[in-house]
Amino acid sequence: MDGYLYWRPASRLTVLAHLFGIIAIVLLLVWLLHFREGMNLDSDNPFRIFNVHPFLMFFGFIFLAGEAMMAYKTVLAARNVQKVAHMFLHLVAITLGIVGLHAVFKFHDRANIRNLYSLHSWIGIGTFSLYILQWLFGFITFMIPQSSIDGRARAVPWHISGGRALLYMAICAAETGLMEKVTFLELQHGRETLLVNFLGLAILLFGITVDVSVALARYR
Amino acid sequence: MDGYLYWRPASRLTVLAHLFGIIAIVLLLVWLLHFREGMNLDSDNPFRIFNVHPFLMFFGFIFLAGEAMMAYKTVLAARNVQKVAHMFLHLVAITLGIVGLHAVFKFHDRANIRNLYSLHSWIGIGTFSLYILQWLFGFITFMIPQSSIDGRARAVPWHISGGRALLYMAICAAETGLMEKVTFLELQHGRETLLVNFLGLAILLFGITVDVSVALARYR
Question: Measured between CB atoms, does B215 come within 8 Å of chain A?
Fold first, then answer.
C-alpha cells in the first residue's frame, strides 16, 4: 500500500464530513446561481463578482483545508504521502482563498464600498493571515529535513491546536459572512432564507465533523 | 491540597483566556449600557429587554461554560472537586442561558418579531439544546457511581470532542448574533462598530484560548 491512498472503512465521521461538505457546496451553488446573480470574476455586474467570494471561500478555502486535515489523520498511506497531501491541499486552499479575497475587494472597488469595516471581514482576514503563517511554520518545521526531531515533537501539539482553532475561526468567518449578507438583503422569510440557514448549518456541521473525526482518529 | 483549588503557574494560556473573557464582558457592558439602551428584563422599552440577551448569553452561558472546561483541566485539585466544579459551573451556565433565551423571546413578543427565523437563532438554539443533552449525558456517565468504568473510558473522547464542538458552536452563535445586530442597526463606521468588532474578536479569542489551554493541558 506504499504511496497508495485508500479509505479506512471505520471512519464513518469522515464520510459524514464529506457528506456535509458536499451538501454545503450544492446549497451554495443553488443559492448563488439560482437565487442570486451567478458568478463571474470579470462581469460588469458587481454582484456577480461578489458571488465568487462566498463560493471560493467555502469550496476553495474551508472545504480543501478540511480535506487536508482529514488526509493527514484519517487516510491510510505512507507517512510521507500523508504529509505531502496535507501540505499540498493546504497550499491549494491558500491559492483559491486568495482569488476569493480578490473577488470581494474587486466588488467593493466597483460598488464603492469601504474595505474591512465589518466583524466578518476582521475575523476573515485575521483567519486567513494566521492560516498562511501556520502553513509557513508547518512547512519549515515538518517538511525541511534539517529541523530537529525534538523541535518537531514540541511543535506538534501547537500545530494541531492551532490548526483546529483556525478551522473553527474559518467557520465563524463563513457564518458571519452569511449572516451579514442575509441581514443586508433583509431576507426574513421565504425559501432563500431557509436555503441560506441550511447552508450555514451544513458548513458548521462540516467543521464539527472534520474536527471530531480528526480528534477521534488520534485516540485510536 | 485536598479539596483546595489553586492555579498552576505555568498555565499562561488560562490567564490569557481569563483576560480575553474579562475584556469581552467589559466591552459588552460598555456597548449595552453606554451605546445602547441599558438592560432590564421588566422594562417598557423592548430594546432594554433585548439587551439582557447578549449579556447573559456571553457572561452567563459562554464565559461560565469556558470556566467549567478550564476548571476541570487546568486547576489542580482533588479529582472529585474538579468534577463537581466542572458539572456545577455548567449547570449555572445552563440556568443563566435559559434566562438569556427568555429575554430574546420576550423582546420578540413585545416588538412583534417572529422567533427563530435567522441563521443566528438556528445555530444558537441548536447549540443550547445539544449543550443540555451533553450535560445530561455527562452527568449520567460520569457522576452516577453505578456506571461502568469501561463505559466511562469509551465516553471520554466523545465527551471531550463534543464539548469542544459545543464551545465553538456557541462562539459561532455569538459572532452571528453580533453580526446580525450590527448589520440590522446599519452601523458601518464610527466608535460603536469598532467596539462591537473588538467585542467579537475578544469573544473569539476567549473561545480559542479556552480550547487550546485545555487541549495543551492534556499533552502534559
Answer: yes
| Grid cell for residue A216 | 477521534
Q: What is the CA radius of gyration of chain A?
A: 18
Q: What is the mean pLDDT of residues B197-202?
A: 98
Q: Cβ–Cβ of B216/A161 closer than 8 Å?
A: yes
Q: Do B193 and A117 touch (CB under 8 A)?
A: yes
- Range in A20-29, A79-88, A177-186, B187-196 the model is least confident about: B187-196
| Alpha carbon distance A164, A168 (integer Å) | 6
Length of chain B: 220
Q: Mean pLDDT throughout A143-157?
A: 85
| Contact criterion met (CB < 8 Å) for B157 and A126 | no
> pLDDT, tens digit, for every residue of B48-85?
999 999 999 999 999 999 999 999 987 778 888 999 99
Residue A196: pLDDT above 70?
yes
Question: Looking at the partner chain, which of A119, A162, A184 has a beta carbon nearest the beta carbon of B197?
Answer: A119
- Determine the Cα–Cα distance for residues B207 and B70; give it in Å rounded to an integer: 11
Arithmetic mean of pLDDT, A5-23: 77
Would you call A82 exposed, middle or buried from its count of C-beta atoms within 10 A (0-12, 13-18, 19+)?
Answer: middle
* CA separation for the pair B78, B27 (Å, rounded): 35
The predicted model gives B111-124 an average pLDDT of: 95
CATH class entry, domain B6-219: mainly alpha
Cβ separation B119–A196 shorter than 8 A: yes
Give SS3 for A150: helix
Tell me yes or no: is domain A8-219 CATH 1.20.120.1770: yes
- Domain range summary for chain A, segments of one domain joined by +: 8-219
Among residues B29, B51, B55, B27, the alpha carbon closest in space to that of B41 is found at B51
* B200 contacts on A by Cβ (under 8 Å): 119, 122-123, 176
Is A208 within 8 Å of B183 when comparing Cβ atoms?
no
* In chain B, residues 34-93 whose CB comes closer than 8 Å to chain A: none
Comparing alpha-carbon positions, the chain B residue that sits nearest to A154 is B219
* A chain contacts of residue B119, beta-carbon cutoff 8 Å: 175, 178-179, 182, 196-197, 200-201
